[in-house]
Amino acid sequence: MARKRTATRMLAKQAGSERKQGEVESKFGEIVSLSGRKEEPVGLGSALGPLNWTEGGGDLMSDSPSGDVVEKVLFSGKVLATVRWLESGSSAVVGSSEGEPGEDFVRVYEDGNNGIDLKHECVHPGKVFDLEVTIGDRNSVLCASSDGMVRLYLNSKSAMERVGGFPQGEAAAGVAALSERTAAGAGSEGSIAVMDIETGVASAERAGGDGIGIRAASRLTSDDFATAGISGFVSLWDCRQGLSAPSQRLRYPRSRAALLCIDADRAQTHYVFCGTDMGEVVCWDRRKEEFPVSSTAPHNGQVWDVRVMNSRPGMLLSCGEDGSVLSWDFLQAAQRGVGAEEYWTAEMTAAELKQLALGKTLGVNAVDVHAKGDLVAYVTDSSTLCFTSLTNSERLAPIEE
Amino acid sequence: MGAQRSISWAPGGSIAVSSVGASNTEDGVPFRILDPRAQNVSAILSMKYQAHLIFTSDMSVAEKSKSYRAVIQECIEALAKEHNPSAQNLQLLDVVTEGHKILWFCEALYFVDESKDSALSLLRDWLRVHDAGVDEAVQSYLDGGDETQFWQVVSRLAAIGRREDATELVQTRIQNVDSRAMGAAALGDAGSSEPIYVAEAALLDAPPDTAEARLDGQFRVWQEECIATLEALDVKSGDNQLGLLLGVLGGQPSALQKSCRSWEELFVAGYLYTRVGGDPADRRKRSVEIASAFQATHKALLALADSNPPESIVVLARPGEYFYSAHLADLFSRAGKLDLYMVPANDQKSLRDYFVSEYALSLETLRGTVQLSADYLLSCGRRGEEILTDILCRMETQSAADPAVEKVFALSKKLSPKRSEMVVRKICTRLASNCAVIGNSAGATYWFTRANDAERAVAQAEASLTSAEIGGCHSAGAEALDRTAEAISVCDNPLIQEKLDYLRMYSELQASLINADEESSAARDAASSASALLGANGGLPEAHWGVVVYDCASILLPSTDARAEGKPIGIGKDETYSLLKALETLSASTGAHRDSLLEGLRQRNSAADPEQLLSTVRLKLMRNLAFCILSEN
């Protein structure tokens, strides 16, 4: 017995040999005591750089969180460009943008017996620039591709079908599902097409709508959609009027302002949101005027995605090149005086802005929240698909007790 | 530690977030690899991403080294999970393990504070993790070894600083074996001269193995007592088993050499027991001399032990794999121990910059790692900037919709203004050329303008203008001109904006012409735009004057009947003068120049003779002028 005990103790010592007594070494070499108190954040730099209002000045966030709120990280080995939840099921769809022939894919991750697992992968001919869940069964995804094609990924069949395309040399920059049967695609050189998802027939087309370059598209209603691009304009298109000209144009009043992403509040479609190349999240009320009703710059660098949380009024997600994912609570901000209906115009303060990711990765390229819960998925240049929970933002106070 | 949440889905697609204790996590590794094909690649990539965060952090050298070790350890654990590893996998694991071993050895010898306990404990732990020989020997003895084996194992454990383990073995043997052999009389007799009791006493008398105990002389006093005991027992180290142990504890080189079984063990033993001054270099030198009884297992270890870090960095480098050399060189450089070493054949680049830039270049293969490459290269001075500039210029950026374009622009801002401009110009020129190929003159004008290529921007704008001129205000060309004018207005290049301002005015002219037949205000706007375009500051090339005059004349009242009907005059006297003046400039030209000036008019109305058109326009303008004068009177 004594011999056995001695050998066991020695092996135990060997296993823990790198650590001081009472300490464990966590990811990135953080030293966390066994009592649970973080002793010394070895520090990979602050989670975010200075966060400033574009107007008024002053730091938006005074306390940079030091705890990691990421709950699950899946490593794909490829740069991931976009992610969307399939609402009817329990799947997250991601698209890559590696750019090498045969290297890109659309993947579906689904919860299984062993946790989140890769359900299916379709090799994608080109970078995936945009994914949009279809209307109706909410179980298929439209993909906009660098090869100029808009394709439909059918989750039920685990197969990809071609829907339509743009002229040679023009990439499909964005896609918006308008109804169960129709989708609008936006080409990188400004072409616009409204197409039948099943037949691929274009019901309306326009060449060169915004020749400088479209970056994103978003549905407003079953007849309207919006495009945004590096010209700094948001073009609103009404399919009933044809695509000869935008029904309305919204402008961002800064020279050489590129709008990189766009989304709209499904309940109040007159509110349109864009992320810019200068870290700003901009909101327009298209009933009022062509200029934004609010603009805030919490990100350091490009904002790659904005998503209005349709299941949570007044809440919005954004992510950017600074590696951070932020949740915005406009409803809470509106309680300081703006009318309840006008919450999107409320002025944000640090209290209403929470971090879901701490900037420890490279750029976060896309983010999405599940329609039925508080689960957030985001993808990064570090080849990771990360899952976290909105409730995690409550843990953002410093960890020290 | 706090509970961790996990995501799960309840039947029917509803979401559940469950909490589980940290002890129940799957594997304790932050990245769970889902694609088995990518497992090795992912583990290595993950290590590189995390190392980059450490590299760019503001940690101290010792903290960085420790953090690098942690991420390499994660990689080793991930690689070791392969159930049926191929030869390639095993080779990969060997490389990573080797890097971990050498980095740890460096940390112990160079990066930690010698006056603290870190170096000693790090060396002991390093040996535990990377040399399992002594533990195998212990296990062999525990599985039924004899007395000779017992003494060998105890001496070996003591030699490599694991005196607690040696003491435990001795005490266990006293309890389980020697008590029966020696009889009851010997039991509990601490003053016994039986070798095992002497060994126990010597081990228990050892002061705590701390730097403080070494500095205040306690450790040396204890070592001298061990040697005195050895001499009092009238045995020489190595002559018997107890003598060997006392010789080890007293730091006698011959005893250390007899106790250890590898270069690593002997070096550590020498480092722990050698009785030279406090200078780490002297201690390393003495330890290397002692360890020379064995062949070093790795040249890098020998170089480090021999106070030659550059040699170790060079030895560690493998073709295409500079991760370890780069980070090691960076650590040595930050610690101020590598300044003098240059690579003569490489533009006198420092050894550190050479390996860091080579590593950065090796990262270039994946798009997502360009950010990593950038940060490494930017730490390598001018040459690093050159390489980064080259990498960014070569980035695949074919479409304006590709986020890679913005990412390259963002990275270029980290370069010097001159190089940043070079990158932006290159990328913008490529995008402009792509637009030009597919006939998107607005896009081409925008990107050439951002590239500060005025000549090609103007050429594209001219092409756009020509298209609008030929097609007229209702044509697709006019629409394209609108977009081109807008492109110029948003590109924030004042020089080119000023140079091409006539495009904006021409676009406005065409917009007014659309409604000029119906609205007199639109006709006035058109005339005003035309007058501005043809004026001294208009900037519109003369080759386009003919069509402007022709278009404006086309909205004039066709006959005196119209005036009789009381319709307002669309073009005023001054504007009419401007148009007539432009017309006379065209009429006065001769030869080839005249042909070139009338070419636009010829294309606009191919059915008519340009000379005849000029006459018609002149007539209309003169009549309008007359109306204007009459109207004034």
Automatic annotation (TrEMBL), chain A:
It comes from the Eukaryota. This is Anaphase-promoting complex subunit 4 WD40 domain-containing protein. Keywords: Nucleus, Repeat, WD repeat. Residues 1-24 are annotated as: Disordered. GO terms for cellular component: nuclear pore outer ring. It is found in: Nucleus.
UniProtKB/TrEMBL annotation, chain B:
Its main location: nucleus. Belongs to the nucleoporin Nup85 family. It comes from the Eukaryota. One of its GO terms (cellular component) is nuclear pore outer ring. One of its GO terms (biological process) is positive regulation of DNA-templated transcription. GO terms for molecular function: structural constituent of nuclear pore. It is found in: Nucleus, Nuclear pore complex. The keyword Protein transport applies. Functions as a component of the nuclear pore complex (NPC). This is Nuclear pore complex protein Nup85. Component of the nuclear pore complex (NPC). Keywords: Membrane, mRNA transport, Nuclear pore complex, Nucleus, Protein transport, Translocation, Transport.
